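Action item from last week, closing it out:
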Amino acid sequence: MSFLQVAKEAAIIGGSILKENFKKIKTADVESKGVRDFVTYVDRLSEERIKNYILSVYPDHSFLGEEEGRFGSSEFVWIVDPLDGTKNYISGFEIFAVSVALQREEECLVGAIYVPMLDKLYYAERGGGSYLNGQRVRVSSRPVGNAVVATGFPFRDTEELDSYMAMLRDAFITFSGVRRPGAAAIDLAMVAEGVFDGFFEMKLSVWDIAAGTLLVEEAGGKFTDFQGKKDLSSGNVIAGGENVYSVLFDIVRRHL
């Protein structure tokens, strides 16, 4: 079975767990991992099922999940967010996703993002384009003045809040709209789809963005960190079509 097919199947397996348990979470089921950072049995169950499936196909590969960390020492590493948008999920807001990517030596080879409540499966393979439910997708070519960009708040790191708010202010002035759905994987997937024209956020984790940044690139877009490098480890991301990316990059750099 191909890497891409495994990524797609794994994302759907996790998504079925999320859908099955949606709106069944009780207050007692929610645990705090840190400031404004939560986890439930659903996150853990989704990750366990995904891991078991992937390792049943590729038992020699490594696995990096948000909840359980890394297993194995292979150069092939599956990077998984079993529930991106946990706060949305807990609150009953239907915008959440599963993100699955395979990385080799810091290069992402395949990625899949499944949005279960919308039944949208985004996927990409390096050099093969980006797709949504079997149809090729591309980043938008709307002019900057008509563009809508997505973002996320630095809710875990309030020390960055002043810089972020300055960026957000400039984005409001520059673009026709700014949206904050609350799940970075979906934000990036929708940039690839051309729904959003760009995206910026800081202090994310690699499992939030590994699949989504590949989708953007394979849809004809561009992504970097705030330094202009393709480094996922910083967690700082700017993405979009060429024109919107360039404007977002200037805004972010102005307020670092």
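Closing note: The two ends are 44 Å apart (CA to CA).
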